[in-house]
Amino acid sequence: MNHDIPAVVLDLSANGIGIVRALRRKGIRVFAFDTSRNYRIGRTRYATCGLCPHPVFEEEALLRFLLAFGERFPGKAVLYAGADDYVQFMSKYREALADRYLFLLPEAAAIDAVLDKRLTYQAAVAHGIPSPRTYTVDSRSRLQELLPSLQYPCILKPAFSADYRKRMNKKAIVVESAERMETAYAYYERFGELMIQELVPGEDENVYELGALFDDEMRLLAVFTGKKLQQYPPRFGSGALAVSVRDEEVIELGLRLLRALSFKGFANVEFKLDPRDGRAKFLEINARTWFWHSLATRCGVDFSYLYYLSVTGQKPEAATTQREGPKWLYPVRYLLAFLERRAEGGANLAEWIRRLRGETEYALFEWSDPLPSLRSFAAHLKSIRLRKNHPK
Questions:
Q1: Distance (Å, rounded) from C-alpha 86 to C-alpha 15?
Q2: Number of compact structural domains in the chain
Q3: 270 and 359: one domain?
Q4: CB within 8 A of 342, min separation 6: which ones?
Q5: Are residues 320 and 334 both part of a single domain?
Q6: pLDDT tens column, 228-286
Q7: Distance separating alpha carbons of residues 127 and 289, to the nearest angstrom
Q8: Sign of the four-CA dihedral 53, 55, 58, 63
Q9: Are residues 153 and 241 in the same domain?
Q10: Looking at CB atoms within 10 Å, which of 131, 259, 305, 368 has the fewest?
Q11: Which is nearest to 229 in space by CA: 135, 93, 341, 121?
């Protein structure tokens, strides 16, 4: 295989670092960029790292930056996006970027459908994918219409907008009563259109994720499933501990939806097992690798490398089987999740320790590249101090 073509990774979170390390282990030269905070934390010796303009607030500057950077290569470099903001940016400027980079994205309409949660829900329902009941709320009068029919607890969350997602600093708000819904909506409506969604019961370990990669002809190149054992923040966060588990129902439902959407390139589909009927309920799609995709690499499904081979025209063999059992751990987030659950009276120390047994892939830590893990640990501690000093 030819590994001479360089790669450019936009993202230096655990997601992006997973891409960087997978490629560098194959001998591929990697450049990685991100905005200030992630750059300070995620700089890794496996890539030439640097700062870049923000993909939402400085998108034209980022386009100029990438086009200028691409001129240094005799041919096109392979471009990766490790975060939704970069995916949205690449989709918007795909024609200009294609002059300097190799990449594969679904059509713009499919990208819009996964970034706008209203369209995502409509697509899932249209293709027969079990989903929690969801309502769009664009006014207080619409909220008043819905209040008598809502079942509590339920979820209030943004429909779309990178800006207010960041300002809310949370995926969703759990609402326990009609009175609380009115209060919450009055506060959060300033951030844009919102959605009310049925809360699928169950703990973090009910959340399953499908990773998939289709080539430009919609040939399946990679598939992997796993489930979260702990999220941070608990219930509506990103992974802190996950395990490789093959689940055929999740695979069937996820691939059915992705094929219906002609979803080329990377895809991550999240489901939650509903204990009320035993069925997997669709939650969301992302057009990228996911936070703990390095677990898939450890288990024999190297998404980053297969993507590289595909977009460079090297026709890789598909990877559709996985080793089950290995875990993925983000230690500082796992500790913080335990402390938060313990404060609520819902954590068991023995169970928390027992879950750490077995083969483990670490989110950031490697003996040969320890600094991203140490910087992340320090950043999380700083964040805790700031929250204590400035309580809401």
A1: 13
A2: 3
A3: yes
A4: 349
A5: yes
A6: 999 998 888 889 999 999 999 999 999 999 999 999 999 999 999 999 999 999 999 99
A7: 23
A8: positive
A9: no
A10: 368
A11: 341
What is the token pair recorded at 68?
A: 């200028």
Q: Residue 95 above 90 pLDDT?
A: yes
Tens digit of each residue's pLDDT (9 = 90 or more) over 352-390: 899 999 999 999 999 999 999 999 999 988 777 655 554
Query: Is residue 11 assigned to a domain?
Result: yes
In terms of residue numbers, what domain contains 62?
7-104
Identify the CATH number of the domain in which residue 304 sits: 3.30.470.20
Q: Residue type for 196, please?
A: I
Strands 265-274 and 279-286: antiparallel
Do 265 and 304 fall within a single domain? yes
Could you tell me if 190 and 76 lie in one domain? Answer: no
Where are the strands (E) in 215-336, listed by range?
A: 220-232, 238-244, 265-274, 279-286, 327-329
Rounded CA gap, 289 and 6, in Å?
A: 19
Residue 149 covered by a domain: yes
Inside any domain, residue 310: yes
